[in-house]
Design brief:
Layout: E1 4-14, E2 23-30, E3 34-40, E4 46-55, E5 60-68, E6 74-82, E7 85-92, E8 95-105
Antiparallel strand pairs: 1-2, 1-8, 2-3, 3-4, 4-5, 5-6, 6-7, 7-8
Length: 106
């Protein structure tokens, strides 16, 4: 497994009021049990993240960890991945929503 991946993710923000950046270039390092990386987030900030990977099936993964670059310095994150499609919860003040996306490694 190659640790370094550089790519681009495209996202949709569902159930939220504000307009968000939908284009997210990224660089990640993924091992059998962890994923770490850097990306341009929905608030147009640079985010650093680290997560533990839980393999639910051969193609379904759950990443649970922490991320920077949002309203607070460090927040929890969870991302469900199926092949190159992902889904994440989103919080906007008192509103909860969903981020759906697709990512492509170059």
């Amino acid at each position: 497994m190659n640790c370094l991946a550089i790519g681009l993710a495209l996202s949709m923000h569902l159930g939220l009021q504000n307009d968000y950046n939908q284009v997210h270039p990224y660089a990640t390092c993924e091992t059998d049990k962890t994923i770490t990386g850097i990306y341009y987030n929905s608030l147009e900030n640079i985010s650093l993240f680290g997560a533990i990977k839980y393999k639910l099936t051969d193609e379904l993964l759950l990443d649970v960890g922490i991320v920077t670059g949002y309203e607070y310095d460090v927040i929890p994150m969870a991302r469900l991945r199926y092949k190159n499609i992902f889904m994440m919860p989103a919080i906007e003040k008192d509103t909860t929503g969903l981020v759906l996306g697709v990512q492509v490694d170059f």
